[in-house]
Write a structure and sequence with these properties.
Layout: H1 12-42, H2 56-87, H3 94-101, H4 103-117, E1 123-124, E2 127-128
Antiparallel strand pairs: 1-2
Helix pairs in contact: 1-2, 2-3
Length: 130
C-alpha cells in the first residue's frame, strides 16, 4: 500500500525570488521615472526641482513616459505570471494572477496616499508662500 504524499510548504527560495522580482520591477519603474525627470531637469525642459510645473504640455510629457514605464512593468508582471503558472511548481496559480490584477489599484492607492501625506503649498501669483 502506498501513501500519497503532498507538499505542505512552498519552496522558500522560489517565493523569495518571486517577491524579489516584484520588488525589482517596482524599483525599476521608480528609477526610470525619476531618472527621466532628472534628465529633463538638467536640460532645463522642466523647471528646477521644488518649483511647480503648470505647463500642461510638460505635465502631458511626464504622464506619457510614466504610462510607458507602468505598461512595461505590467507587461513584465504578466509575463512573469504566465511563466510561473506554466512551470506549475511555484504554488497556487491565483497568486501571480493576483499580483498582476492588483498592479493598477495599488498604483492608484500609492498616489492617493502620497497626495494625502504631501505638504500643501499655497501659491500666490505663481510664487510659493513665505
Amino acid at each position: 500500500m502506498t501513501i500519497p504524499l503532498t507538499r505542505t510548504s512552498p519552496h522558500p527560495r522560489r517565493l523569495l525570488r518571486s517577491t524579489g522580482a516584484v520588488f525589482l520591477g517596482f524599483i525599476t519603474v521608480v528609477v526610470l521615472s525619476l531618472g527621466t525627470d532628472q534628465v529633463l531637469h538638467v536640460f532645463q525642459v522642466y523647471p528646477p526641482w521644488g518649483q511647480p510645473m503648470y505647463d500642461p504640455g510638460l505635465n502631458l510629457l511626464a504622464l506619457s513616459y510614466r504610462i510607458v514605464y507602468a505598461v512595461i512593468g505590467f507587461v513584465l508582471s504578466t509575463a512573469g505570471a504566465i511563466a510561473t503558472i506554466s512551470m506549475g511548481d511555484f504554488g497556487p496559480a491565483w497568486y501571480p494572477i493576483a499580483l498582476v490584477l492588483t498592479t493598477f489599484p495599488c498604483a492608484w492607492l500609492g498616489g492617493a496616499l502620497h497626495r494625502r501625506t504631501s505638504p500643501v503649498t499655497v501659491f500666490h501669483n505663481n510664487q510659493p508662500a513665505r
